[in-house]
Structure formats: C-alpha cells, structure tokens
Recover the amino acids of this structure.
C-alpha cells in the first residue's frame, strides 16, 4: 500500500478526482493546504481524509514555510506527494528532499506556457491545441520530467474560462492515471524522460487525445 499526501490551495477538483478514482493499493493519508479557506479542505473532510493547513502567513520567510510544510508532510511518511492546484513555488531544498516522489498537475502542454494564466496566454498565442501535463517536480518551475499529457482543441469562440473547463476535464482524467502508474511502480525517470513500464499486454499511451470535445 502506497501512502499519498495531496497539497492544495483552493477548489480541490483535481484532489477530488483522485479521491474518487480510489487508486488500488494507494491510500490518501492527508490533504494539506497553504490556505485556510481552501474549499477543497471541506471536500477532503467529507471523504474522511485528515486535513491540515500550513500557511505562509505564519512564517517570516519562504524557507521557514518550506521547512514547516516538509515537516508536516514527513509526519505522514508518504511515498508520493501530489501537488493538485497547489499555487505556491517550493524551494530547492524542499524539492530535493522529496525528489522523485513529488508530482504536479499543470494546465498547459509543457514546455509551453509554464507559470500562471496559461489559458489566456494560449488563446493570445493563437495555438490550436492546448492541454495539461502531469510531471515530476524539479527545482525549475514546471520543467520536470513529463509523465502524461492530454490535448484539447482551442476553438475560435473560446474564452479563457471555456478553454479552462475543457482542459480541467482532462486534468481529472490524467492525474489519477499518473498516480496509478506511480503506485504500480511503472514510472522510470531517465533524464527528462519518464518511461512507463508495460506490465500487461495492454499498452496505454502517455499522450492521449480525447475522442470528442
Ligand atoms: C488546475 O487547473 C491546476 O492545473 C492548476 O490550478 C487549477 C486547480 O484546480 N494548477 P483545482 O483546485 O484542482 O480544482
């Protein structure tokens, strides 16, 4: 049984998708938010999951916050930490401590559109395909080895919100898939590439286009 800690900052819909997926041989042992008013905390409680808040407001600098968060996470001895809408950049020491077992969901097809406001920027840039990425976290923001991506079309009529909703649907699908692969010990990091070991006759592509929009 692999233990998972999820970090959130707000709504928590990716966290909820993971809770609902009920990945075999995995147990979500805690949900930690850096915001006391994150709506996702209530959802986690309703699932009977232990929750905690570690707020940057309570610490005098970034490093002290990172240390407190790392300590709180370590208390649960997780095999995997999932950043599911966690909107705070983590420092080098924090990332080094958990490297290889720290996963993030990002709402763009990396390496395009790292950082914030990805949907607005995708529309402005005129790309015809946008999407989302689950990747391992490394010290450089949104640049770690890519585990899985999903693409959606960008329509002429899209507003950032409409595009975000289309992408979010895919986020909810690929995050549980990435976690499942991790729990099955199928992910092997090789430089910037993540190889997905085939443990059955069936092959699951790590770049998945939805059948319809
Ligand atoms: C998601 O789009 C995630 O990719 C991004 O922030 C959003 C969080 O949504 N980093 P939620 O809290 O999972 O609903």
């Amino acid at each position: 049984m692999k233990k998972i800690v999820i970090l959130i900052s707000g709504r928590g819909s990716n966290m909820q998708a993971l809770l609902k997926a009920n990945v075999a041989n995995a147990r979500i042992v805690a949900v930690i938010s850096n915001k006391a008013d994150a709506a996702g905390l209530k959802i986690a409680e309703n699932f009977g999951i232990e929750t905690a808040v570690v707020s940057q407001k309570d610490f005098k600098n970034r490093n002290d916050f990172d240390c407190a968060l790392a300590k709180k996470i370590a208390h649960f001895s997780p095999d995997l930490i999932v950043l599911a809408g966690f909107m705070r950049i983590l420092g080098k020491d924090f990332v080094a401590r958990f490297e290889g077992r720290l996963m993030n969901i990002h709402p763009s097809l990396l390496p395009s559109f790292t950082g914030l406001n990805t949907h607005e920027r995708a529309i402005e840039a005129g790309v015809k395909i946008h999407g989302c990425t689950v990747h391992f976290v490394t010290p450089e923001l949104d640049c770690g080895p890519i585990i899985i991506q999903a693409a959606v079309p960008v329509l002429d009529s899209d507003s950032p919100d409409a595009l975000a909703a289309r992408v979010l649907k895919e986020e909810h699908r690929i995050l549980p898939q990435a976690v499942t692969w991790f729990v099955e010990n199928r992910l092997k990091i090789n430089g910037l590439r993540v190889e997905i070991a085939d443990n059955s006759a069936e092959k699951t592509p790590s770049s998945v286009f939805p059948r319809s929009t």
About this structure: The CA atoms of residues 19 and 28 lie 8 Å apart. The chain has a mean pLDDT of 95. The pocket of 5-O-phosphono-beta-D-ribofuranosylamine is lined by residues 8, 10-14, 40, 84-85, 105-107, 168, 171 (CB under 6 Å). Residues 160-183 form the longest helix (24 residues).
